[in-house]
Amino acid sequence: MADESGRLAEIFKREKSRFLRFVQQQFFDRNDTEAEDIISEVTYNLLRRADIIGEIENLTAYFYRSLANRVVDHHRRRIETVWLDDQEDAALALEIPIERFGPEEMLEQQELRARLFNAIGQLSHKEREVWLATEIDEHSFYDLSIEWDEPIGTLLSRKSRATAKLRRLLAD
Fold first, then answer.
1. How far apart are CA 138 and CA 10, in angstroms?
2. Which residues contact 131 (CB under 8 A, 6 or more apart)?
3. Which end of the chain is less enclosed by CB atoms within 10 A, N or C?
4. Cβ(115)–Cβ(172) below 8 Å
5. Domains of the chain as residue ranges with CATH
6. What is the pTM assigned to this prediction?
7. pLDDT tens, residue by residue, 41-63
8. How far is it, in rounded angstroms, from Cα 24 to Cα 30?
9. For residues 115 and 35, what is the distance between their CA atoms, to the nearest angstrom?
């Protein structure tokens, strides 16, 4: 077990600057502390699991893959969910993930949400119902067909028309 930890320490010493550059490339702001935190977390987790290090053929590649996975996890944690339920129609309550952006990007996101709500509001009631049920609530057409006592083909047509209208309305 000490031999595996020594092997990891040797790779870490040799590759630390490359690991740091690799993680920094994944961030737009190139925050050194975040990159170092990620490297520390991966190193700590590998040291905790020193029993598997001996089974890993290419420990450097494994370390890079672990770093990449941790960066993805880090980006996922940075995503917030905002409920947009201040609309008159309760069916328009959408859960849209938005990342933490700067002021310009936040303004773009707000404008996009406003355009999306406006476009959804222009759909007929039945088109809006089927589009929201399938796209937002992730209901299957089969379940909706049974629940609403409508043929699947009818629901598919409504969804198709709704999607075409939304594309047209959001085209620019």
1. 49
2. 120, 123, 158, 159, 162, 163, 166
3. C
4. no
5. 1-88 (no CATH), 103-171 (1.10.10.10)
6. 0.42
7. 888 887 777 777 777 778 788 88
8. 5
9. 36
